[in-house]
Every structure is written in structure tokens, then in C-alpha cells.
Design brief:
By secondary structure, this protein is mainly alpha-helical. It folds into 2 domains: 16-175, UbiA prenyltransferase (Tetracycline Repressor, domain 2, Orthogonal Bundle), CATH 1.10.357; 176-309. It is 77% helix and 0% strand. It has 16 helices and no strands. It has helices spanning 2-5, 7-11, 21-27, 30-46, 53-77, 79-82, 100-121, 124-148, 152-161, 163-172, 177-200, 202-208, 213-216, 219-242, 248-269, 279-310.
């Protein structure tokens, strides 16, 4: 195009973007998005109502796009610190593959599109919750909490915990105690999950001035808090069975998974201060992902099985 070849644009610092479709997909944080989509789907599928398949598909797509949009906005704002941290310096913006303005526009457009589509085709309660989630993650967490307090993950974890409630609201048009418990499982799971990562990436966070718990309170205090949270997560994970929302099958799985979470956290608690390899922390980080997937998979399977029993299909 002639406009790209114009010397005025070259002098002004404009250049043709070299970004590919894969670069923009990377901006969406697809691994994080996949967990968000899965938990939202569980909330939608577990709701005690029949949902039109088209409505369900629209809801999940909108939640996925909204989650991706908040990830793009996060990468736009965090480009400076991402360029310094070893685990993020190859992301599209710090590597130069995507321009900051492109990422900002991409995130804003997807945010508006996902919220409006969810409101028009599903319901406005779920749309409002999605809008709040995007705002909370991109503005409250990324722009404020992340840089101001070691409790950033504790408070900011609310953004990642809302998707199952959005899914439930998309199906029912309301929020229930059952969906709130799903929220609490993720909300309480988030600190030990990310603090385990922060233990073996504390140098990265220190270099960019992010006040993660190990850098502020020290590793021994962080390990104690991880263990305390693990105990609470294990208890809350069993609540759906205790309160009669699920069968004993889910109860058994949640007890086993919770015991594993406590065990791995106990190993982190006993980890010597001199341990620079931090295998227990890395093991807990990996197991925490398995825990969250397992607990929600069990919840989904239990809901489907109970529904089949109720309809006489089993």
C-alpha cells in the first residue's frame, strides 16, 4: 500500500506490523484461556436447567474471547516488565512482533465485542459479570494490585475465579450458593498456585519490582501461607458433596485430590531455606494445575451422571 511506503510515516516511527495470526493468538494467553473456558463450561453444564446448545456455544465463545481480551490488555500494560523477566521476554510485544498499540486496540475491541454479544444473545447478568472480570483483571489487578501489594494474587485471583459463576449465570440468569462455592475453590487455590511459582521465580519478580510474597515476606512465611491455604482449599473442595450438591463419587475424588494438595504443600513447608533448586515448589505448581482440572472434571462428570440418572437414561 502507498501509505506504508510514504516517507512521512517512516519518519514518524510507523512501520508495517510483522505480527502473524499466531502472535495475536499468543496475546490471548491461550493456556490461561483454556482453564477459564473449562471452568466456565463446568458452571454452565452443572446448572440445574436445560440450555439451548446455541446459547451455550455463544456463552462459552464470549467468555473465551473476554478472557483472551483481558490477557491482551495485561500483556500491553506489562510489556516493560515482560521484557526483563526470563519467562515472559519472548512474548509478542517485548519481542517486537506485535506493536503495543496493536495489542491495546485488539484487547479493547475483543472486550467490547465479547460483552455485547453475551448480553444480546444470552443475558445481561452474565455480560455484566464478564465486563467486571475484564476490568478487574486488566485495571484493578494489572495496573494497581500487581505493583502495589504482596496480596496482589490473593485479591486479583477473583478475576480468574469468576468464570464458573458467569457460566452458571449464562444458563440460569442468576447466581446461587453452588456457583459461589465453585468460585471459592478457584479463589482460594490461586495464592498457593502462584506463590509456588513465585518461590522459584523470585529473582525475576525482584528485578522488575513486583512485590510477590517471597520477595516481601520472605520464603519461610510464604511457605507457611501456602500450606495454610492448601488446608482451606482441601476443605472447600469437599463442600459440594457435604452440602449435597454432588454424589459420594465426587466427594471421594475431592478428598483424594485435596489430600494431594496438602501433601505437596507440606513438602514445600519442609523445604530448607538453602534449597535453590526448589523441586518441591515446582512439584506443587504442577500438581496445583492437576488439582484444579481434576476437581472441576469430577464436578462436571458427577453433574452429567446425576442428570442421566434423573432422566432414567442410566
Amino acid at each position: 500500500m502507498a501509505i506504508v511506503e510514504d516517507k512521512h510515516y517512516e519518519d514518524a516511527g510507523y512501520r508495517l506490523s510483522e505480527a502473524t495470526a499466531g502472535d495475536f493468538i499468543e496475546l490471548l494467553k491461550p493456556r490461561v484461556m483454556s482453564l477459564v473456558v473449562f471452568t466456565a463450561f463446568v458452571g454452565l453444564a452443572a446448572a440445574p436447567v436445560s440450555v439451548n446448545p446455541f446459547v451455550a456455544l455463544v456463552a462459552i465463545i464470549c467468555i473465551a474471547v473476554g478472557a483472551g481480551a483481558s490477557g491482551a490488555l495485561n500483556m500491553w500494560y506489562d510489556a516493560g516488565i515482560d521484557a526483563v523477566m526470563s519467562r515472559t521476554r519472548s512474548r509478542p510485544i517485548p519481542s517486537g512482533r506485535v506493536q503495543p498499540g496493536e495489542a491495546l486496540a485488539f484487547g479493547l475491541v475483543l472486550s467490547a465485542l465479547s460483552v455485547m454479544t453475551l448480553g444480546v444473545f444470552v443475558n445481561w447478568l452474565s455480560a455484566a459479570m464478564l465486563a467486571f472480570t475484564i476490568f478487574f483483571y486488566a485495571v484493578v489487578y494489572t495496573m494497581w494490585l500487581k505493583r502495589s501489594t504482596p496480596q496482589n494474587i490473593v485479591i486479583g485471583g477473583a478475576a480468574g475465579a469468576i468464570p464458573p459463576v458467569i457460566g452458571w449465570a449464562a444458563a440460569t440468569g442468576s447466581v446461587s450458593l453452588e456457583s459461589v462455592i465453585l468460585f471459592l475453590i478457584i479463589f482460594l487455590w490461586t495464592p498457593p498456585h502462584f506463590w509456588a511459582l513465585a518461590l522459584f521465580k523470585s529473582g525475576d519478580y525482584a528485578r522488575v519490582g513486583i512485590p510477590m510474597m517471597p520477595n516481601v515476606a520472605g520464603e519461610p512465611s510464604t511457605r507457611r501461607q501456602i500450606f495454610a491455604y492448601a488446608l482451606v482449599v482441601a476443605v472447600v473442595g469437599v463442600l459440594p458433596w457435604v452440602l449435597g450438591y454432588t454424589s459420594a463419587g465426587y466427594g471421594l475424588v475431592s478428598v483424594v485430590l485435596g489430600a494431594g494438595f496438602v501433601w505437596y504443600s507440606w513438602k514445600v513447608l519442609l523445604m530448607p531455606d538453602s534449597d535453590r533448586v526448589m523441586k518441591p515448589a515446582k512439584a506443587l505448581f504442577a500438581y496445583s494445575l492437576l488439582y484444579l482440572f481434576g476437581i472441576f472434571a469430577a464436578y462436571l462428570a458427577d453433574s452429567i451422571f446425576e442428570r442421566l440418572i434423573a432422566t432414567g437414561a442410566v
